[in-house]
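Weekly modeling sync, notes
Attendees: S.R. (lead), two postdocs, one rotation student

Agenda item 3: backlog of single-chain predictions. S.R. asked that every request posted to the team notebook include the full sequence so nobody has to chase files. The rotation student volunteered to paste the first one in as an example of the format we agreed on. Action items at the bottom.

Example entry:
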Amino acid sequence: MCDKRRRVNHMAKIIFALNQSLDGFVDHMALQRDPMLFLHFIEDVRGLTGILYGRRMYETMRYWDEDHFEWDAQEREYAAAWQSKPKWVVSGTLKSVGPNASLIEGDLSAAIRGLKAQHEGDIEVAGPELAHSLTELGLVDEYRLYIHPVVLGHGKPFFAGPRPPLRLVASDRIGEQVIRLTYVPA
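Predicted structure, as returned to the notebook:
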């Protein structure tokens, strides 16, 4: 008797997730810290397979590589979750990266397709410019926009260029003031 069940090949999903203002700009320094949202991000990072960064965003996030005496318990939890995750950094200028991180150089499309094939679960991409490059290559599987009730009027936009048509698949309230909108390419 022949077993007709086929082995399903699971691939990682590339997710672009970032906080933004009502008018579409990203600037974490201008957004108010919400303890419930921070708890959400701790759990989010714990559940990730890994994180994909461009150079600038990676250099910003390196803050979490070292312990700071002034951190509260939540910040220590976030740092532990972040430090435990593999990180891939897309850069043509960096020569080295910190603990639990690897450089991606050369053919971006092939490298990301390789990551997707080698892993299961969610790989989060941070940074609008890298996300734009991955969008152009058709490699972003999901967009998570964390909308804060602030109008900045200027700055770096969440979408760094044209994007494909998107389809809303979920909306969630996180904490008291943030709405997360989840879209997939249509």
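Discussion: group reviewed the output briefly. Helices lie at 35-47, 55-61, 73-84, 108-118, 128-136.
Action items: rotation student to repeat for the remaining queue; S.R. to check formatting next week.
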